[in-house]
Amino acid sequence: MPVCFLHTADWQLGKPFARIVDSAKRALVQQERLAVLDRLGEAARAGGAQFILVAGDLFDSPSATRATVAAACSALGRMGLPVLAIPGNHDHGGPGSLWEQDFFRRECAALAPNFRILLTAEPVELEEAVLFPCPLMRRAEASDPTAWLRDGVAAAAAAPGKARILLAHGSVQGFGGDGDEEEAAVGGNRLDLDRLPAGAFDYMALGDWHGTKEISERAWYAGTPEPDRFPRGVGNEPGHALMVRASRGGLPEVVRQATARLRWEQLDWHFSEDSAVAALQERVGAWLGQRAGQDLLRLELRGALGMAAGAALQQALESWEARLLRLKLSDRTTAAPTAEELEGLTRRAGDPLISRVAARLAEQARGAGEEAEVARLALRELYVLGMGS
Ligand SMILES: [Mn+2]
Prior knowledge:
Number of helices: 10
CATH architecture of the largest domain: 4-Layer Sandwich
Shape: elongated
Strand order of the largest sheet: 4-3-2-1-11-12
Bound molecules: manganese (II) ion
């Protein structure tokens, strides 16, 4: 009998997103990590899943606040199916861990009786499948968490005819953890799937890598269901969960389900002429549409702009900053007033003060180095002031 389930991981509930300065926007991004759990539950029920597997890092921190724990239990309860999970590096088990605290246990019993955290490396027989959990009991395990399955004894003892599903959190060869610099420094949690007996497991549900990724026909990273950082590298596709149909001895059927709502985008832009500002506005406009409060953009700007073009860019940036949940801007454009713009500023008949200041700045702006660049930016400011008068 095939078994059907939803594989997800890396919810990182309670992630602070401290770099989002606007507190209302920060709260929206935090809230979306919980809201996606309802979409996961819907996808699982609509797809006919018998249960949901979470391959670690449900919480961003082993010291999640009580509010986060309560909200998580409430969302888990709403999923309406059995949910089975292992702890990952961010929410590892062990003495005194989140999972063993009275508060978590009480909230879980009250709000999410359908939830079960698997803290022991031993087979769990369900009606439809046998699970082989590889929980992380500390942040960085020096030994491979799947090592207990290498001799094949546990798998061989499993009920015949039931699909065997491994559940693990860590990095496999070529994929370095969840991509946090902080985590990379810690190391550990390496999964050597090649050392497991061939054919012993029908599906390996992996967590830690935040993009959705097929490692082999039987091993997948689900990725995080709601992106939590700007894209890193090509082909890293967060924002999914996996609907899996597996059977003993067969190849699993794996279907990606898109679950993300917020968009995290990266754009590098080089201004080679002033008209490139309009081109950038068009490009961002096509992506952003009429949306506000749903997108995050990392924008890297280079090149040189005249004063009118620079002022137009500043206005566009103001608007994007307001509409985006976060505009992470790296603006390395330099101010390069056109000859006409300089002429217009320094020869203002009705405005002797502006023309005198402009002439002095224009003199300083002719040079190279930081002082000249400051003078060019000051000219731009003066130009904007002049436009209003
Ligand atoms: Mn992780």
